[in-house]
Amino acid sequence: MTAIEGIVEHGDRRGRLLGFPTANLTLADEAIADGVWGALVRTKPGKWAAAAVSVGRRRTFYGDNGPRLLEAHLLDFNEDLYGREIRVELLVRLRPQQAFTDVQSLTDQLHHDVRQARAWAASNYPGLVSAEAEPAAGDPVTGKMSYA
Ligand SMILES: Cc1cc2nc3c(=O)[nH]c(=O)nc-3n(C[C@H](O)[C@H](O)[C@H](O)COP(=O)(O)O)c2cc1C
Predict the structure, then answer these.
(1) Residue 73 in contact with residue 52, Cβ under 8 Å?
(2) From the CB of 98, is ligand 1 less than 6 Å away?
Protein backbone atom coordinates (compact mmCIF):
# COMPACT_ATOMS: atom_id res chain seq x y z
CA MET A 1 0.00 0.00 0.00
CA THR A 2 1.25 3.47 -0.84
CA ALA A 3 0.65 6.28 1.66
CA ILE A 4 1.30 9.99 1.21
CA GLU A 5 1.06 12.66 3.88
CA GLY A 6 1.07 16.39 3.27
CA ILE A 7 -0.57 19.77 3.66
CA VAL A 8 -3.55 20.43 1.39
CA GLU A 9 -2.91 23.15 -1.19
CA HIS A 10 -5.27 25.06 -3.41
CA GLY A 11 -5.74 23.68 -6.92
CA ASP A 12 -6.62 25.97 -9.81
CA ARG A 13 -10.28 25.49 -8.81
CA ARG A 14 -11.30 23.92 -12.10
CA GLY A 15 -12.33 20.82 -10.13
CA ARG A 16 -15.13 22.76 -8.52
CA LEU A 17 -16.37 23.88 -11.94
CA LEU A 18 -16.29 20.32 -13.24
CA GLY A 19 -18.28 19.20 -10.17
CA PHE A 20 -15.34 17.30 -8.63
CA PRO A 21 -13.59 19.46 -6.05
CA THR A 22 -10.27 18.02 -4.94
CA ALA A 23 -7.84 18.30 -2.04
CA ASN A 24 -4.41 18.63 -3.65
CA LEU A 25 -0.94 17.58 -2.45
CA THR A 26 2.29 18.18 -4.34
CA LEU A 27 4.28 15.00 -4.88
CA ALA A 28 7.96 14.84 -4.06
CA ASP A 29 8.18 11.07 -4.36
CA GLU A 30 8.67 10.04 -7.97
CA ALA A 31 8.20 6.41 -6.96
CA ILE A 32 4.45 6.92 -6.70
CA ALA A 33 2.99 5.84 -10.02
CA ASP A 34 0.59 7.96 -12.07
CA GLY A 35 -2.94 6.63 -12.11
CA VAL A 36 -6.41 6.85 -10.64
CA TRP A 37 -7.07 5.12 -7.33
CA GLY A 38 -9.66 4.17 -4.78
CA ALA A 39 -8.24 5.52 -1.52
CA LEU A 40 -8.79 6.31 2.11
CA VAL A 41 -8.00 9.80 3.38
CA ARG A 42 -7.40 10.68 7.03
CA THR A 43 -8.81 14.19 7.38
CA LYS A 44 -8.02 14.59 11.10
CA PRO A 45 -6.78 12.23 13.81
CA GLY A 46 -8.97 9.12 13.75
CA LYS A 47 -11.27 10.48 11.02
CA TRP A 48 -11.27 8.85 7.57
CA ALA A 49 -13.13 9.35 4.30
CA ALA A 50 -13.13 7.35 1.07
CA ALA A 51 -11.91 9.07 -2.09
CA ALA A 52 -11.26 8.83 -5.81
CA VAL A 53 -7.65 9.98 -6.22
CA SER A 54 -5.74 11.13 -9.28
CA VAL A 55 -1.93 11.05 -9.38
CA GLY A 56 -0.47 12.72 -12.45
CA ARG A 57 0.05 15.83 -14.54
CA ARG A 58 -3.54 16.65 -15.62
CA ARG A 59 -2.42 16.04 -19.19
CA THR A 60 -5.85 17.00 -20.54
CA PHE A 61 -5.01 20.59 -19.56
CA TYR A 62 -1.22 20.78 -19.25
CA GLY A 63 0.22 18.23 -21.68
CA ASP A 64 3.31 16.45 -20.42
CA ASN A 65 4.73 19.49 -18.64
CA GLY A 66 2.28 20.00 -15.81
CA PRO A 67 3.44 19.54 -12.22
CA ARG A 68 2.75 16.11 -10.78
CA LEU A 69 -0.03 16.35 -8.25
CA LEU A 70 -2.09 14.13 -6.05
CA GLU A 71 -5.74 15.22 -6.18
CA ALA A 72 -8.28 13.57 -3.89
CA HIS A 73 -12.00 13.87 -4.48
CA LEU A 74 -13.50 12.84 -1.14
CA LEU A 75 -16.84 11.06 -1.10
CA ASP A 76 -19.65 12.30 1.14
CA PHE A 77 -17.43 15.05 2.50
CA ASN A 78 -17.69 18.80 2.12
CA GLU A 79 -15.41 20.45 4.65
CA ASP A 80 -12.67 22.77 3.47
CA LEU A 81 -9.39 20.89 3.90
CA TYR A 82 -7.09 23.71 2.81
CA GLY A 83 -4.02 23.94 5.05
CA ARG A 84 -4.78 20.72 6.91
CA GLU A 85 -2.38 17.80 7.06
CA ILE A 86 -3.94 14.70 5.53
CA ARG A 87 -2.83 11.12 4.94
CA VAL A 88 -3.83 9.41 1.71
CA GLU A 89 -3.63 5.61 1.38
CA LEU A 90 -3.84 4.46 -2.25
CA LEU A 91 -5.53 1.08 -2.04
CA VAL A 92 -6.93 0.02 -5.41
CA ARG A 93 -5.75 1.16 -8.84
CA LEU A 94 -8.71 1.91 -11.08
CA ARG A 95 -7.01 3.00 -14.32
CA PRO A 96 -4.01 4.84 -15.81
CA GLN A 97 -3.97 8.62 -16.38
CA GLN A 98 -5.28 9.76 -19.76
CA ALA A 99 -5.16 12.91 -21.86
CA PHE A 100 -8.77 13.49 -22.92
CA THR A 101 -9.60 15.32 -26.13
CA ASP A 102 -12.26 17.48 -24.48
CA VAL A 103 -13.55 18.42 -21.05
CA GLN A 104 -16.83 16.53 -21.49
CA SER A 105 -14.97 13.23 -22.01
CA LEU A 106 -12.91 13.89 -18.87
CA THR A 107 -16.07 14.72 -16.90
CA ASP A 108 -17.82 11.54 -18.12
CA GLN A 109 -14.81 9.51 -17.00
CA LEU A 110 -14.72 11.26 -13.61
CA HIS A 111 -18.35 10.24 -13.03
CA HIS A 112 -17.37 6.67 -13.81
CA ASP A 113 -14.29 6.82 -11.53
CA VAL A 114 -16.33 8.16 -8.64
CA ARG A 115 -19.00 5.46 -9.05
CA GLN A 116 -16.26 2.82 -9.06
CA ALA A 117 -14.55 4.29 -5.99
CA ARG A 118 -17.90 4.45 -4.18
CA ALA A 119 -18.72 0.82 -5.03
CA TRP A 120 -15.26 -0.25 -3.83
CA ALA A 121 -15.61 1.73 -0.59
CA ALA A 122 -19.17 0.56 0.03
CA SER A 123 -18.10 -3.07 -0.03
CA ASN A 124 -14.84 -2.62 1.90
CA TYR A 125 -15.57 0.29 4.27
CA PRO A 126 -19.38 0.44 4.46
CA GLY A 127 -19.34 2.91 7.35
CA LEU A 128 -17.61 5.58 5.25
CA VAL A 129 -19.94 6.07 2.29
CA SER A 130 -23.62 6.08 1.53
CA ALA A 131 -24.97 3.53 -0.96
CA GLU A 132 -24.65 4.34 -4.62
CA ALA A 133 -26.82 7.09 -6.01
CA GLU A 134 -26.74 5.45 -9.44
CA PRO A 135 -25.81 1.90 -10.42
CA ALA A 136 -22.16 1.36 -11.22
CA ALA A 137 -21.21 0.26 -14.70
CA GLY A 138 -20.18 -3.27 -13.82
CA ASP A 139 -21.10 -6.58 -15.35
CA PRO A 140 -24.56 -6.11 -16.92
CA VAL A 141 -25.84 -9.36 -15.42
CA THR A 142 -24.27 -9.57 -11.98
CA GLY A 143 -23.54 -5.88 -11.48
CA LYS A 144 -20.11 -6.94 -10.18
CA MET A 145 -17.19 -4.60 -10.69
CA SER A 146 -13.74 -5.71 -11.71
CA TYR A 147 -10.65 -3.76 -10.75
CA ALA A 148 -8.08 -5.23 -13.09
C1 LIG B 1 -10.66 10.75 -9.90
C2 LIG B 1 -9.92 11.71 -10.79
C3 LIG B 1 -9.37 11.26 -11.98
C4 LIG B 1 -8.70 12.12 -12.84
N5 LIG B 1 -8.18 11.65 -14.01
C6 LIG B 1 -7.58 12.51 -14.87
C7 LIG B 1 -7.05 12.05 -16.13
O8 LIG B 1 -7.11 10.85 -16.47
N9 LIG B 1 -6.50 12.97 -16.96
C10 LIG B 1 -6.42 14.32 -16.64
O11 LIG B 1 -5.92 15.10 -17.44
N12 LIG B 1 -6.85 14.77 -15.44
C13 LIG B 1 -7.43 13.90 -14.55
N14 LIG B 1 -7.89 14.35 -13.35
C15 LIG B 1 -7.54 15.72 -12.95
C16 LIG B 1 -8.54 16.75 -13.36
O17 LIG B 1 -8.16 17.22 -14.62
C18 LIG B 1 -8.45 17.87 -12.33
O19 LIG B 1 -8.95 17.41 -11.09
C20 LIG B 1 -9.19 19.09 -12.73
O21 LIG B 1 -8.55 19.66 -13.83
C22 LIG B 1 -9.27 20.10 -11.61
O23 LIG B 1 -8.02 20.56 -11.23
P24 LIG B 1 -7.88 21.54 -9.99
O25 LIG B 1 -8.31 20.81 -8.75
O26 LIG B 1 -6.44 21.92 -9.94
O27 LIG B 1 -8.80 22.70 -10.24
C28 LIG B 1 -8.56 13.50 -12.48
C29 LIG B 1 -9.09 13.95 -11.27
C30 LIG B 1 -9.78 13.07 -10.43
C31 LIG B 1 -10.36 13.60 -9.15
Answers:
(1) yes
(2) yes
> Hey, what amino acid is at 51?
A
pTM, to two decimals = 0.88
The per-residue DSSP string of 54-82 comes to EEE--HHHHGGGSPPEEEEEETT-----T
CA 47 to chain centroid: 18
Residue 14 and residue 61 in contact, taking contact as beta carbons nearer than 8 Å: yes
Pocket probe mutation, ligand 1, options 71, 80, 101, 107, max atoms within 8 Å of Cβ: 71
| Cα-to-centroid distance, 141 and ligand 1 (Å) | 31
pLDDT averaged per 10 residues, the chain (length 148): 92 80 88 94 97 95 90 94 96 97 96 97 94 56 49
- Residue by residue, DSSP assigns 103-138 as HHHHHHHHHHHHHHHHHHHHHH-TTTSPPPSS--S-
What is the rounded distance in angstroms from the CA atom of residue 61 to the CA atom of residue 54? 14
